[in-house]
């Protein structure tokens, strides 16, 4: 009886999955039929807009300074990644058949961790959580392929400026903090693909963002800060664009 029950559950679940894909077939077929029409419609425009929603994972690239060698309490410091999300608007200018210039202003919420290895007898390992609310303005050049059935593949690269509204660089009582600058510049690059539907384009993409400048605000009076020579941000982002 138990085996029969499992089989019935599996049979019902399989039927639901089959019905779901049967329901999707007309939508996929319609998207394939309309891709040429939609592509021609977008080609006639000088620009178009969209919404950019993403989930990110970010951490630091760490460079130690000379004080680290002589420090008798902190044995090491490492970065641990934390989750976050992005919400932006997207504007694309059509430069040619295959090239676009994109601007994606928005807000990114991110968190990173610094994990300190403390010498035995002086306490447990310390973990510092650094949260950011970044107003950012990425600017990118996008190259996309010609239509392949109902989708296009594309790659992009560009620069990004970010202003961290949650920066603690002005904090006065910060004995156990690591201060970060409000300003950051980074280089972005990634890949994605466009799926054409009758009324909009759905574009999942993956992006890597590498910081170009040192965002660490040095302070020799801070024990957790004076062993760090530099911090550069790094972010991995999976996003979905809705363009129309």
How many beta-strand runs? 9
Report how far the terminal alpha carbons are from each other: 54 Å
Report on the biggest sheet: 9 strands, antiparallel
The tally of domains stands at: 1
Globular, elongated, flat, extended or rod-shaped: what is the shape?
elongated
Helix content: 10-25%
H/E order of the elements?
A: HEHEEEEEEEE
- Helix tally equals 2
Low-confidence stretches: 1-14
Structural class by secondary-structure content: alpha+beta
CATH class: Mainly Beta
Mean pLDDT score: 81
CATH architecture: Beta Barrel
Strand content range:
over 45%
How large, in whole angstroms, is the Cα Rg? 24 Å
In CATH terms, what is the fold-level topology?
Answer: Porin
Kindly describe this structure.
The protein is an alpha+beta fold. It has a single domain, classed as Porin (Beta Barrel). It has helices at residues 2-43, 67-70, and strands at residues 47-64, 74-94, 99-103, 106-118, 126-144, 151-164, 183-196, 201-211, 228-243. Strand 4 and strand 5 form a beta hairpin.
Task: Give the helix/strand layout.
Blueprint: H1 2-43, E1 47-64, H2 67-70, E2 74-94, E3 99-103, E4 106-118, E5 126-144, E6 151-164, E7 183-196, E8 201-211, E9 228-243
Antiparallel strand pairs: 1-2, 1-9, 2-3, 2-4, 3-5, 4-5, 5-6, 6-7, 7-8, 8-9
Task: Note the main attributes of this structure.
disordered N terminus; alpha+beta; Porin; 244 residues
In summary, what is this structure?
It contains 2 helices and 9 strands, in the order H-E-H-E-E-E-E-E-E-E-E. It has 244 residues and is α+β, with helices and mostly antiparallel strands.
């Amino acid at each position: 009886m138990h085996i029969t029950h499992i089989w019935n559950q599996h049979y019902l679940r399989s039927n639901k999955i089959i019905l779901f894909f049967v329901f999707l077939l007309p939508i996929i077929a319609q998207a394939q039929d309309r891709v040429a029409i939609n592509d021609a419609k977008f080609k006639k425009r000088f620009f178009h807009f969209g919404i950019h929603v993403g989930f990110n994972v970010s951490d630091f690239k760490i460079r130690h300074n000379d004080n680290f060698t002589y420090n008798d309490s902190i044995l090491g410091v490492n970065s641990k990644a934390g989750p976050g999300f992005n919400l932006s608007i997207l504007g694309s200018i059509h430069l040619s058949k295959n090239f676009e210039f994109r601007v994606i202003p928005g807000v990114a919420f991110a968190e990173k961790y610094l994990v300190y290895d403390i010498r035995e007898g002086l306490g447990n390992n310390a973990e510092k959580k650094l949260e950011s609310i970044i107003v950012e303005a990425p600017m990118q050049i996008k190259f996309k392929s010609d239509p392949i059935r109902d989708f296009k593949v594309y790659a992009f690269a560009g620069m990004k400026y970010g202003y961290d509204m949650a920066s603690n660089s002005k904090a006065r009582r910060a004995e156990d903090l690591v201060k970060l600058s409000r300003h950051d510049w980074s280089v972005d690059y990634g890949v994605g693909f466009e799926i054409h539907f009758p009324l909009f384009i759905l574009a999942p993409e993956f992006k890597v963002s590498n910081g170009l400048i040192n965002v660490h605000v040095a302070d020799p009076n801070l024990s957790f800060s004076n062993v760090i020579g530099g911090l550069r941000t790094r972010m991995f982002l999976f996003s979905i664009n809705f363009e129309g």
